[in-house]
């Protein structure tokens, strides 16, 4: 048992008997002796899932009836609440009572697989051609699923297309106000500043720019402007132009980012409560015209327009502004990562190991993938020019009926979210397609996931949270003027970051990256 699980074990001892009663007992079949059996003989496997808000897990989803007819496998869903899923999974891992199928993080799989919690899929690739092809096609997936002993312990979920073009975020602004005041979309940082000033002049009671919180999230202000002035997304990340990780505050442009954000704050072009707003408060102000420019999920454009119109602003409209960056900085946005942070794993205690592997192999096959990500042709999707599109009657949010009525694109079940997203975007309206097209030139492939050692994980755990808290606090002081942005103050800022471990973390990320993937 790994040291990382010891704390969970101590809290799980009193619960282990209960969890054992509902997990690790799959593989129930007539005449099962373990090992190879008739692939059509009835068998059931337990599978840990949770009820999503769009709809609860159902035993009569049609896709699983069809899959059962083809494989002989019936799924015994072990359903928990969304809030309790992580704790339940961790307790099961700590007590080695995981269900036959489950969705651990890739890290959990590769750390606990060698301790006989999860099945080593590498031992069965000779009977699993689809799994073998999957790992050959996605070497990153193989890397993050491989334990220290060389075993492969899960099938990572696919999140982005291999070409690295799927993306999530855009600059968006009130198109109705732009049309009303004859304002053009900015294309660089100076034009963006003037754009905000012009909006403020026309709408003096507003603060044109606002961001959802937290400020360090993917759409948070510190992340967005840090990238604009340094080219680094977040605090630690891979450089978009070099084969290495960088720490944004070490870049000379980071001080410029602070100066720019302070200028926006001082001139009331930025919501003065930007670091305090709850998501609901931020949305209310954006809907009611207290702000008119933000950086957010592209999928929220049409829903936001609809909400604003329902709230009493019939002319409300939004459109995308292009990505931009400071002079000398690459203008880009990372795509969605191809390989996600979680994957499908099989319990090492499953009674019929070969049958379980063959079932997982089927789910990874083209037919199995289509069931889990698309559903049933003619009922949940159709083909247009040979490519799948979700049923038009499902509307702008097809994932609601897909998950509720079909079990399609359902978390902890689907293995290819990239296919689901591509199918969704293929059926978008003209405005959304135009936004995608306008951003295509800015999107570059996301960094590959790092495989960290236990020591590296411990370092990250001990250093990253205190460092991030200090960054949030000090950057807010700079932006709001509480701490003047002088050379001396900025140097003290950098010195404190080093004391908190920024150098150690940066070295660790580069070491982990080079060890996992080597140089390009």
Q: Which structural traits does this protein have?
A:
520 residues; alpha+beta; D-Maltodextrin-Binding Protein, domain 2; 2 domains; 3-stranded mixed β-sheet; 3-stranded antiparallel β-sheet; 15 strands; 43% helix; ABC transporter substrate-binding protein; membrane; lipoprotein; signal; palmitate
Describe this structure in words.
- Helix 6 packs across helix 7 and helix 19 crosses helix 21.
- The protein has helices at 6-12, 16-20, 62-71, 85-94, 106-112, 129-137, 139-145, 175-181, 189-202, 221-230, 253-266, 279-287, 301-310, 353-364, 366-373, 399-406, 417-426, 430-439, 454-480, 487-499, 502-517; strands at residues 28-29, 43-50, 73-80, 101-102, 155-158, 169-174, 236-238, 245-247, 293-297, 318-321, 333-334, 339-346, 381-384, 387-390, 443-444.
- The protein has 21 helices and 15 strands.
- It is globular and about 75 Å long.
- By secondary structure, it is an alpha+beta fold.
- It has a three-stranded mixed β-sheet with strand order 1-2-3. Strands 4-12-5 form a three-stranded antiparallel β-sheet, with helices on both faces.
- Helices cover 43% and strands 12% of the residues.
- Mean pLDDT is 92; it is low at 1-37.
- Strand 2, helix 3 (62-71) and strand 3 form a beta-alpha-beta unit.
- It folds into two domains: 3-158 and 344-426, Periplasmic binding protein-like II (D-Maltodextrin-Binding Protein, domain 2, 3-Layer(aba) Sandwich), CATH 3.40.190.10; 168-334 and 450-520, 3-Layer(aba) Sandwich (D-Maltodextrin-Binding Protein, domain 2).
- It comes from Paenibacillus rhizosphaerae.
- This is ABC transporter substrate-binding protein.
């Amino acid at each position: 048992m790994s040291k990382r699980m010891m704390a969970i074990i101590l809290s799980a001892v009193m619960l282990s008997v209960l969890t054992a009663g509902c997990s690790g007992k799959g593989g129930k079949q007539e005449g099962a002796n373990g090992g190879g059996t008739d692939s059509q003989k009835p068998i059931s496997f337990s599978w840990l899932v949770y009820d999503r808000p769009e709809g609860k897990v159902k035993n009569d989803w049609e896709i699983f009836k069809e899959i059962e007819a083809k494989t002989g496998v019936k799924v015994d869903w072990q359903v928990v609440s969304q809030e309790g899923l992580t704790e339940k999974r961790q307790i099961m891992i700590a007590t080695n009572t995981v269900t036959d199928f489950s969705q651990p993080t890739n890290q959990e799989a590769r750390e606990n697989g060698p301790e006989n919690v999860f099945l080593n899929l590498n031992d069965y690739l000779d009977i699993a051609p689809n799994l073998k092809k999957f790992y050959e096609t996605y070497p990153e997936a193989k890397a993050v699923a491989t334990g220290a002993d060389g075993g492969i312990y899960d099938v990572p979920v696919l999140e982005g297309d291999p070409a690295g073009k799927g993306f999530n975020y855009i600059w968006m602004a009130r198109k109705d106000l732009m049309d009303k005041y004859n304002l053009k979309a900015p294309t660089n940082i100076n034009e963006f500043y003037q754009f905000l000033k012009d909006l403020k002049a026309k709408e003096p009671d507003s603060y044109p720019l606002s961001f959802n919180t937290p400020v360090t999230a993917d759409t948070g202000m510190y992340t967005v402007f840090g990238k604009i002035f340094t080219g680094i997304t977040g605090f630690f990340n891979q450089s978009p132009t070099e084969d290495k990780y960088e720490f944004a505050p070490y870049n000379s442009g980071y001080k410029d980012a602070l100066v720019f954000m302070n200028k926006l704050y001082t001139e009331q072009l930025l919501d003065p409560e930007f670091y305090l707003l709850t998501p609901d408060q931020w949305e209310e102000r954006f809907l009611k015209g207290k702000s008119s420019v933000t950086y957010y999920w592209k999928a929220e454009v049409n829903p936001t327009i609809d909400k604003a119109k329902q709230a009493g602003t019939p002319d409300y409209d939004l459109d995308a502004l292009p990505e931009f960056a400071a002079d000398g900085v690459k203008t880009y946005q990372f795509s969605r990562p191809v390989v996600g942070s979680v994957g499908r794993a099989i319990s090492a205690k499953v009674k019929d190991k070969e049958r379980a592997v063959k079932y997982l192999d089927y789910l990874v096959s083209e037919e199995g993938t289509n069931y889990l990500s698309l559903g049933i042709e003619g009922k949940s999707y159709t083909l247009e020019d040979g490519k799948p599109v979700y049923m038009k009657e499902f509307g702008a949010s097809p994932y609601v009926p897909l998950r509720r009525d079909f079990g399609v694109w359902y978390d902890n079940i689907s293995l290819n979210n990239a296919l689901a997203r591509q199918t969704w975007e293929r059926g978008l309206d003209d405005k959304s397609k135009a936004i995608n097209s306008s951003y295509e030139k800015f999107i570059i492939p996301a960094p590959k996931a790092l495989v960290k050692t236990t020591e590296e994980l411990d370092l990250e755990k001990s250093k990253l949270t205190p460092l991030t808290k200090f960054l949030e606090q000090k950057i807010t002081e700079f932006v709001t003027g509480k701490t003047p942005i002088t050379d001396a103050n900025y140097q003290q800022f950098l010195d404190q970051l080093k004391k908190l471990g920024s150098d150690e973390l940066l070295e660790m990320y580069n070491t982990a990256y080079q060890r996992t993937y080597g140089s390009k």
